[in-house]
Amino acid sequence: MTISALMPVYNRVDLYFERGEGAYLFTDKGERYLDFVAGIAVASLGHCHPQLVAALEKQAKTLWATSNLFKTHGGDRLAQRLVDLTFADTVFFQNSGVEAWECGIKLIRKYFSSIGQPQHFRVISFQGCFHGRSMTAIAASKAEKMVSGFGPLIDGFDLVPWGDMDAVRAAITPETAAIVIEPVIGEGGMKAASAEFLRGLRALCDEQGLLLYFDEIQRGTGRTGKLFAHEWAGVTPDVMCIAKALGNGFPIGACLATERAAHGMVPGTHGSTYGGNPLATAAGNAVLDVMTAPGFLDEVVRKGNYFAAALEKLVATHPKIFTGVRGKGLMQGLVCVPQNSKVVAALRAEKMLAVEAGENTLRLLPPLIVTEAQIDEAAAIIDRAARKLEETL
């Protein structure tokens, strides 16, 4: 047998992590790494946060699963809190971000069908987007690395250049149903949409009778200093998918919608065996307890500004390695001159974890509980790694 027992769809680093604490991960050999990946924006409250540990321990001793045929107080509470905290009137829980994305796509199509306009089914998406790896998600992206070998693609997605309002308007046809966008692109290069662009999309959807769909899977749940990134623009979508940090590592996703948009979602139209199970919603409620505490998000904004300033200094110090800073809050990127994978490897050699993103960008996603001292530590590591890379040029 030549294939590994675990299907080799990831180029996995030969490190075994067996313990985490706050912003650090520890290998089975006792080596400590500063974690600025956080499970790719998942462990946003760090590793083994005491409030989350306590919530899961308590829930694990009482109830794990009932099926969505029955109600649970924890699930009802989490749904109501998300409604109270957002634009939404209703929520459906899933197990992951891509499942929440799929729910949103189904909801959009079902809405137009339920109002007698089934011809509206196409969704406009943006170059560089990443919504997951399901068949509809890769069809929305059309990125070669994701679609090669998986054709024919599911029809219904029209790709336009990032930030180009004229292209968006030109892409609208009598079959268009919605526009979907990540308010801050992660995988595609750590670019934040301007407030003006998001407001323009909202106005265009209202003008054309379309639904506006925000993907807040990676940039949502506190990452930018607001609970959800679109709040900075003062606009609201009709549909939104979230996941990742909502469970801080426990699998949970959610599709949020207005009552109007969810008009067609009646019993039998959608479902999930594990979605919103008692363990997942206990984790979600504990995450919201921490993130909605007074001052928490203000601290994310402050530390995000501190981090961005430190990165700007690194760009100025190492112009042969970095050319710019992108992102928002504690979702930051450094645009690289050498291949970003080389920079990731150089940081790992210095015991710091980062991850690649599109457009040759280094993606930096520290936990939201990161301290200024740990940001300084990260800046010092990046500086050391950059100096060593410069010696190889």
First and last CA, distance: 41 Å
The count of DSSP E runs of length 2 or more, i.e. the number of strands, is: 15
Q: Name the helicity range.
A: 25-40%
Task: Provide mean pLDDT, rounded.
Answer: 97
* SSE topology string: EEEHHHEHEHHEHEHEEEHHEEHEEEH
Low-pLDDT ranges: none
Describe the secondary-structure layout.
Blueprint: E1 17-21, E2 24-27, E3 32-35, H1 38-41, H2 50-60, H3 73-85, E4 90-94, H4 97-114, E5 122-126, H5 135-141, H6 144-147, E6 157-160, H7 165-171, E7 176-181, H8 195-208, E8 211-215, E9 239-242, E10 253-257, H9 278-291, H10 296-317, E11 322-328, E12 331-336, H11 340-349, E13 352-353, E14 355-357, E15 361-364, H12 372-392
Parallel strand pairs: 3-13, 5-6, 5-7, 7-8, 8-9
Antiparallel strand pairs: 1-2, 2-3, 4-10, 9-10, 11-12, 12-15, 14-15
In a nutshell, what does this entry contain?
The chain has 393 residues and is of the alpha/beta class. It contains 12 helices and 15 strands. The longest helix has 22 residues, at 296-317.
Task: Give an overview of the whole structure.
This protein has 2 domains: 17-49 and 295-392, Aspartate Aminotransferase, domain 1 (Alpha-Beta Complex); 63-291, Aspartate Aminotransferase, domain 2 (3-Layer(aba) Sandwich), CATH 3.40.640.10. 37% of the residues lie in helices and 18% in strands. The chain is built from 12 helices and 15 strands. The strands form 3 sheets. The protein has a 7-stranded mixed beta sheet, with helices on both faces. A 4-stranded mixed beta sheet has the order 1-2-3-13. The protein starts with 16 loop residues before the first strand and ends with a helix. The mean pLDDT is 97.
